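Our preliminary data section would be incomplete without showing what the modeling component actually yields. Below, a chain of 245 amino acids is followed by its predicted structure, encoded as tokens that our downstream tools consume directly.
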Amino acid sequence: MNDKVEPLTDFDALDPLREQYRGSLISTRLLRQELAQHHVALLCIDLQYLDAARGFGVFADAAASGVPLKAQEYYFQELENVVLPNVRRLQDAFRAHGLEVIHSRIQSMTRDGRDRSPGHKRLNLHAPPGSKEAEFVESVAPVGDEIVLNKTASGVFNSTNLHYVLRNLDITSIFIVGVYSNECVSTAVRDACDLGFYVTMVEDGCTTVTPELQEATITTIRDRYARVMTTDQAIAEITRVREAS
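Predicted structure:
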């Protein structure tokens, strides 16, 4: 496995703190140990009908969604053709190696959503229990007794008992995928990093409504809050380590 750190690009070099962050991230050797000892989980964020399916939830009325039609088309093209297939591949790889796959979704505890966060009330984000909006997209839905966490805010750590669950599972490293990259995914990455987890963001396993937002999110997170990898790189790493252990 190659431990070499890629040189900075001209764009990366604009950030004077970049090198300091790079030196503090999880080493490949440490991650190998985490993988070999089953201390790694895949966290799938908000891949549900509320925000990841045409004609439902946020996009039930395309014109009233607040997302320009061009941005919606970009989002769904990326989601359907890249992100969902890649997330499924990652889920299959984690399952095949006996590693945890954890799912979070937006869902209130009450039918009328009175328990939602002020932010979700303001944005009118609501997926009642048993609603279509609360259902996971079928291709990446939970399997068996995989853990599902319901949240009513952007952050999965501050609105669920995820931190407690991960500690109970002895998880110390998390691979994160889902939507939107610049919102709930980014919040999860940063919170996980701040809580001391080793984080990997899978860049082609998440997306948002414009390529500019996606690029800005990845650039901000890379080497500061998380490693950034492709699906192919993540699967290759998991497979090599698990087969060697």
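The chain is about 40% helix and 15% strand. Residues 1-5 have pLDDT under 50 and may be disordered. Preliminary results of this kind motivate Aim 1 of the renewal.
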